[in-house]
Specification:
heterodimer, A: mainly alpha, Non-ribosomal Peptide Synthetase Peptidyl Carrier Protein, Chain A, 4 helices, 0% strand, B: alpha/beta, Peroxisomal Thiolase, Chain A, domain 1, 2 domains, two-stranded parallel sheet, 12 helices
Chain lengths: 85, 387
């Protein structure tokens, strides 16, 4: 799971072009949106595509995203359970 | 009257902090990188991570111009760009191909349109005024100038931000190379290419620090070399300016051995002592490189100095109506790496051993003619005059 969390952090940094941010800067339970990493709705779309492309997870209900993208911790748990690749 | 009240430029030279022309960066290779300004001083971190180089350079250049002009309220933002935000266009088109039209992300697409630069400038300023982008190859900047001039003369606008911006992108420049547009060696066909952004605040209000006046702009798509002189005569006639009134000529001559006849025909029409100034050996070629020429000409008009590094022929101090005065501001040529390092550390320009960075006072430079063409098409004349 730790390896998956590190992988997710690196993918987030690359996909969202987070300059001056390293994987070590993102704590597992940091909020990704709002006060935490400060991501916005466009970033949410990028993350949805990332789940589909890299892990074969299609989010049919957009409301699910609110919980899945709460933190790296919640993302890793969801991916570990639902990934198809 | 239309006054140039502010200018800003990001280019392959250190134009963003006033180091150029005292400090001239020697071109290395045939694709010249820009000297990056401290972007984070001008753009919020949350915004900057989504911006391509063209957007970032445009935003910084516009901020510099507005700062100089005293941050006036704008009645219009008009941008010229030849290839737009081509890097992001490449990014999302590549993603379409690589992912078989699936998994398409929004960021590159949103940032890829030709009007992204003008839009981001407006968003940053909270400016809801007229916002238009001209995409007309090598007369994109001039087309934006024509629009700005017409709006100012017809009193539809009082102050306008106008500029030109283009960025380079790996695949596009690879195609340019295949098409023979980019030089591959000394004496080979093709030119040295680059990217950059230059913005200006034009206004009907004169300021104490105005650079000069924009008198007129003309754009012609097709012109044979023998038609350049008659076209210039017609242009000057409509501005009420005689050929003998022109104190300096700024030409968009690049290092492509082809299509140079246009410039030799044009400069051949002037007295040998009239300074002929070139800049693309320092800025590189790109669709809106003429905005760099406009930036340079405005500086010469205001300062009365012709940087030696851009003087192709003629003697500024001996131009009609002027006495010789070869006072020099010494500078030096530095490598791109050194300049980038200094920029990153926000160092100011330093004088050193003089090579070509000297400037020569050009007494009585009142009227500057700019002429540009790109591979035999997209010709333009611009006339600037002192205040």
């Amino acid at each position: 799971m730790d390896q998956l969390k590190l992988e997710i952090k690196e993918k987030i940094i690359a996909a969202l072009n987070l300059e001056d941010v390293t994987a070590a800067d993102i704590k597992d339970d940091d909020a990704l949106f709002g006060d935490g990493l400060g991501l916005d709705s466009i970033d949410a779309l990028e993350l949805i595509v990332m789940l589909d492309k890299d892990y074969g997870i299609k989010l049919s209900d957009p409301k699910e995203g609110r919980n899945i993208f709460r933190s790296v911790e919640t993302m890793a748990a969801y991916i570990a359970e639902h990934r198809t690749k | 009257m239309i006054y140039i009240n502010g200018r800003g430029c990001v280019s392959a030279q250190k134009t963003f902090d006033g180091s150029f022309p005292d400090e001239v960066i020697a071109p290395e290779g045939y694709i010249l990188p820009v000297v990056p300004p401290p972007y984070k001083d001008y753009i919020a971190p949350a915004m900057i991570r989504r911006m391509g180089s063209g957007v970032k350079n445009g935003v910084v250049a516009s901020a510099l111009a507005l700062q100089e002009a005293g941050s006036p309220d704008l009645d219009a933002i008009i941008t010229g760009t030849g290839v737009g935000c081509i890097k992001d266009s490449e990014a999302f088109l590549t993603a379409i191909l690589e992912n078989h039209e699936e998994f398409l992300t929004p960021t590159a697409f949103i940032q890829s349109t030709h009007n992204t630069v003008g839009a981001q400038i407006a968003l940053g300023l909270g400016c809801k005024a007229y916002n238009f982008s001209y995409v007309n190859s090598a007369v994109s900047f001039e087309s934006a100038l024509v629009d700005a001039r017409l709006q100012l003369l017809s009193e539809e606008a009082r102050t306008i931000l106008v500029g030109g911006v283009d960025e380079k992108a790996d695949y596009t420049y690879h195609l340019f190379g295949l098409a023979g547009l980019i030089k591959t060696g000394e004496g080979t066909p093709g030119a040295s290419y680059s990217e950059g952004a230059a913005f200006f605040v034009l206004s009907t209000d004169k300021q104490e620090e105005s650079y000069g006046m924009l008198k007129d702009v003309a754009v012609m798509n097709c012109l044979e070399p023998e038609a350049v002189a008659p076209a210039l005569e017609a242009f000057l006639r409509r501005t009420g300016t005689a050929l003998a009134d022109i104190d300096a000529v700024v030409i968009g001559k690049n290092d492509d051995p082809q299509f140079q006849e246009y410039y030799s025909v044009l400069s051949g029409g002037f007295s040998p002592e009239v300074p002929v100034i070139h800049y693309k050996h320092l800025s590189g070629e790109y669709n809106t490189a003429s905005a760099f020429g406009f930036w340079l000409a405005a500086g010469i008009l205001k300062s009365g100095y012709v940087p030696e590094a851009v003087l192709l022929s003629g003697q500024p101090g001996l131009s009609p109506g002027g006495a010789a005065s070869n006072a020099a501001t010494l500078g030096k040529i530095v490598s791109h790496e050194e300049a980038s390092h200094r920029a990153a550390n926000s160092e100011t320009a330093q004088s050193g051993a003089a090579i070509r960075g000297a400037a020569i006072r050009g007494a009585a430079i009142r009227h500057i003619l700019l002429y540009n063409q790109y591979r035999g098409i997209d010709h333009s004349f611009i006339l600037l005059s002192g205040c």
